[in-house]
Amino acid sequence: MKKIAVVLAGCGRMDGSEIHESVLTLLSIEQAGASYQCFSPDLAQDHVTNHLNNETTNETRNMLVESARIARGNVKKLEELNSNDYDALIIPGGNGVAANLFTLAQDGANYTVNLSLSKIAQSFTAAGKAVGFICIAPVMIPAIYNFPVNMTIGSDEGTAALVTKRGAIHHSSTVNEICIDEKYKIVSTAAYMLASNILDAYSGINKLVHKVVELA
């Protein structure tokens, strides 16, 4: 059975990983006949949001602890993720990912990616293993890799221009499409960058997961 590593950044679309995207990813992995293990940085979230009114609170929360809500407790520290132990890597999205796993929310066009995650993704790709990026997570691609990668974030012109300026090759897509870089086995899909409901999100995520598992 193929083993897929999934990286989370907390629990909640505004301050962590998008819950629908994360759960749909885990569901799709099992539907594809593979198994998964969740990982998360053992660090404080950049911020905490009240998802009832989308207002930032004064709370502090830990990404690993919060990710355990999605993983039902079965989550390991990001630093324990070794590409030798897994067949592929998938990173769901969420606004919180853009503040916790990389710094788009804080630094705009000059964003950087969590160093541990960047090295892990590079090691999967260097080993010829597939990596999947969902929703806002594909924005990390040109900051992780020092070569042009075919990718999509959907159809948002501003975000597409941003990743193109950073060196990626962007392909506009609909919510139920995926973009596959065949050379590097890097797969991306828009999910809630375009989705208006959970079924929309599932359409692209399920395709991405099945492709990643196929390439694994």
Descriptive overview:
The chain is α/β, with parallel strands linked by helices. The chain is 34% helix and 18% strand. The chain contains 8 helices and 11 strands. β8 (150-151), α7 and β9 form a beta-alpha-beta unit. α1 (19-31) crosses α8. The longest helix has 18 residues, at 198-215. The relative contact order is 0.18.
List keywords for this structure.
single chain, 216 residues, alpha/beta, seven-stranded mixed sheet, two-stranded antiparallel sheet, 8 helices, 34% helix, globular
Describe the structure concisely for a colleague.
With 216 residues, the chain is an alpha/beta fold. The chain is built from eight helices and eleven strands. Helices cover 34% and strands 18% of the residues.
Topology diagram in text:
Layout: E1 3-7, H1 19-31, E2 35-40, E3 49-50, E4 55-56, H2 63-71, E5 75-77, E6 88-91, H3 97-100, H4 104-107, H5 115-126, E7 130-134, H6 141-144, E8 150-151, H7 157-165, E9 169-170, E10 178-181, E11 186-189, H8 198-215
Parallel strand pairs: 1-2, 1-6, 2-5, 6-7, 7-11, 8-9
Antiparallel strand pairs: 3-4, 10-11
Q: What does the average pLDDT come to?
A: 97
Widest sheet: strand ordering: 5-2-1-6-7-11-10
For the sheet with most strands, the description reads: 7 strands, mixed
Q: Please report which band the strand proportion falls in: under 5%, 5-15%, 15-25%, 25-35%, 35-45% or over 45%.
A: 15-25%
Q: What is the H-and-E element order?
A: EHEEEHEEHHHEHEHEEEH
